[in-house]
Amino acid sequence: MNSSREHILTRLSLSKSPVSGDALASELGLSRAGIWKHIEALRNSGTDIQAHAGLGYVLNSEVFSAGALKARLNCKRIGQQIRIVEETGSTNRDIMQEAELGTEEGLVIFANQQSQGKGRMGRLWQTVPESLACSVLLRPVLPPEQVPQLSLLTAVALHDALSQFSADIRIKWPNDILHHGAKLAGILTEMRAEPGYVHAVVLGFGINLQAPADGWPADITQAATDLSTVSCQKISRLDVAAAVLNALDHWYELYLKDGFAPVHTAWWQAHASSGQAVRVFDGRQYIEGIASALDHDGALLLKTSSGMERIIAGDLELL
Predict the structure, then answer these.
(1) Mind listing the pLDDT tens digit for each residue in 25-76?
(2) Residues near 74 by beta carbon (within 8 Å), at least 6 away in sequence
(3) Which of 51, 125, 265, 306 is positioned for an S-S bond with 117, CB 3.0–4.6 A?
(4) For residue 173, is pLDDT > 80?
């Protein structure tokens, strides 16, 4: 978005009273006519801005802007840079390109629509209308074999953030967020590394905020739900995005300070099938057993009739 329009939106969204055209003109070094042109452009794009004679402009609807989001954050690392794009192929890919250019840790990119979003195991991630698609750049000092811990950390952060809006939010191994068995959000973590050294980690996630008006896409095989439905209220994109980034920053800081133990404990407590009978399809066969533990690289330990099985990847079903 044009930087002047971004500034105008941020000022209006943060103000509880009308903001005068003179004030905006002074802040941006523009004429009143220049401000009016930007206001008209925003209105033409669907933004509801009302002018009050002698007072100034008022924003009558929530606008999802970087400035408005930053004002709601209490983060040490994540969200120092925030970009919001209308459409892209993949926010994970965009973040990885930024990482290769040397961009610092903490960059966040949101997209209103993704055409090439990825899920686990090469699947397509459906970015439905009114979803929240986001990726975050981290540069942790970790050996590559510990990076899967950050996917578990992301699940814990999403669980905590979304639990502010609805009860009964659970984690399903390895990286889904559920409400009563229906998928509410998914996570995909990617990295660039060499032996013994991690260059960059991208935490990507998508959250269903509202069900599509024409129903969920036919090629979605898993039951899906959305935050508006499970919370029985209209959901603010700004509120959800701020809750998630604040939670993610909190857990990342705790992880850097105290290691994986707090994340491990929180994940197991929030897991939908801890200690329960499950089956996992590992790409070749179904393995049934009791979900007994989670090890330090994110593998699920199943107690089966033939002993303990360590499952590195697969699709879990509750029995």
Answers:
(1) 999 999 999 999 999 999 988 889 999 998 999 998 888 889 889 989 999 9
(2) 246, 249
(3) 125
(4) yes
Residues with Cβ within 8 Å of residue 67, at least 6 apart in sequence: 6, 7, 9, 10, 11, 13, 14
Alpha carbons 10 and 181: distance in angstroms, whole number: 38
Greatest C-alpha distance within the chain: 79
- Which are the contacts of 129, defined by CB distance < 8 A and separation ≥ 6? 113, 210, 212, 213
The single-letter DSSP state of residue 2 is -
Instruction: Map tokens 């941006």 to a residue.
Output: 28
Whole-number Å distance between alpha carbons of 154 and 250 = 11
174 prior amide bond cis, ω within 30: yes
224 alpha carbon, distance to own chain's centre:
17
Tokens of 194: 């060499």
Question: Model pTM?
Answer: 0.88
Structure tokens at 177: 């967020």
H or E element: which one contains 179? strand 176-179
Through-space distance between the first and last CA atoms of the chain, rounded to whole angstroms: 48
Signed CA dihedral, 273, 276, 278, 280: sign only = positive
